[in-house]
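BUG: 3D viewer hangs when loading the predicted structure for this chain

Environment: internal workstation, default settings.
Expected: structure renders.
Actual: progress bar stalls at 90%.

Input used:
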Amino acid sequence: MGQHRRARLPRRAPLIGLATAAFGAGVLVLPGVISTANAANPLTLYVSVDGFDGPNDCTVSTRPCHTLRHALVIAGGDTATGRDVEISVGPGRYTPNSITDHLAGGSPNSLTITGAGPTETVLTMPPDVGNVIGLSIGRTFTARVTVNSLSIVGPAPDAPGHDGAAGGFATGISDDGPGLLTLADVRIDGLTGGHGAPAGAATIPGGEGGSVYGLERTGGPTALRNTIITGLHGGAGGAGFGNSVGGDGGAATGVSTDAALSVTSSLISHLTGGGGANSGDGGNAYSVAVEPGHSDHPVTVLASEFSDNVGGAGGPGLPGAPGVDAAAGGQGGEAVGLCYVGPHLVIADSTLSGHRGGIGGAGGRGGDATGNAGAGGNGGAGGTAMGLLSNTREGLASTSITDSTISDNQAGGGGVGGPGGTGRTGRGGDGGNGGAAGSAAGLMPLVGQNGILTNTATHLTVLGNLGSSGGVAGKAGNGLTPGVDGTPGANSPTAAGLVSNAWTTLSASLLDNAGGDCLLLVSAPLTDAGWNITSDDSCLQAGPGSRRVPGVATGVGSPADNGGPTHTQALPGDNPAAAAVAVNSGLCGGTEATDQRGMPRPGHAAPDHCAAGAFEPHRIISGAS
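Structure tokens produced before the viewer hung:
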């Protein structure tokens, strides 16, 4: 989870945990949501593309400011102290001032920035400026902040440096303040990290690609509603030179935070890590990455979708100099929907699907020589792909996932081993080993040795989560004595629907995954609470109504728009899962009275049964309006 500008999430290090959190009715309770102080004395500031900044206090709608930056200065000044401040930003395209439109401090009661709609009010990143932030809020600004009805769009930056300089980062919104941050009807689209500069000498590696964030949050709680973050691209690593390696690709992260988070009716998708260069690792791609800095920070995800992220490819290894072994390929980047370190997680009516781990880079060719030749470089490992990766190290923890689709996540393949060089009068170089494929899972909730984690999974659709193949072995080089072929890389070590080392209760769910439906680490206990339909026996513990149906996913649709707020997988009415759950089980009504789309249960198999999984099929009545 590296390449973060503030490096809060260490790259591929073990996830760390924290302690307790509080929920109300299963929904995240965020502090600071309601405040009425000085509500009778609001301050409204106006911004328009046709306005002017100075001298202008922005308080008259017919004499608006020209830039959001000017209005933010006023919002952080003495006239705004203790007041509810709203900045009304009219239609048009606005360009943030280079590095940031920054709100360093101030003490209003609250600040609301409202546009005319995400297609009407657009903040456009300036090109070729290095580092850039669309809207920045400093840690000394203590008020709660709401951003409504606008877009922040790229691409930006690229201001290429030289001699291995890192590419510039791009961030839509950065907030270090302690107050609640709310984004509502906001779109952040197309931001791009800068490319790392090539190495300038054999001793200087290529620069890392710039990372990109839709929202980077530190220190306070966050709520997203009807928000879209999409099309973010980490910058490519800079090329190596001589003996120096290339740079890692930049990360692409939709939301990075260290505090409580609530996501409702939002889409965070199509994020791509930058490609590594010459043994550099590919950048990671996460829809949401949460690593709380202290306790009491739960996460809730409702009616939202985290989908279609792609880890950056590992860079190919440089060829060896004459008689010298070649460099290995870089590791493929990870692709994850939600990466959460913490004690309490609730997911409902949501989709975490379609993520692809990056492919490992190919090993370089061994150096030819008059005597003995160099060996080929090893292929890089493929990247991990998961819908959900969560962890807690200590204390009591819980994960509750209901009416959700976690499917079609595929690990990256291992890189090809490089060929050995030719030894004209000596031994040919050995071929490089193929890289190992990455791991894949639909969901992987884990707990450390000092923690107690309880997982509850109800009405899940977990299909088609796949591993990949290890890289092909490199061929031996020719010579008076030929070299030895490399070893093929290992296939994915983990490729399953549900992977956990904690107590898990599974009910009314549909699972079909080629590498296994459930993988229980260290003999973790699993309670089969009944009415599960699975393609193998790995999840079944003689629960009532649970049964094995090989190939049960046959005929189930790919994730698509079937109505409702997220993509779902349509279940045919003749599939065995469509009438798998008895109504008298209590899993077809009450809190489970609707499926992921909001359609009622029971449906197709009423009145006695409903479907296993997140999708409830309904009969089509001819002639119905």
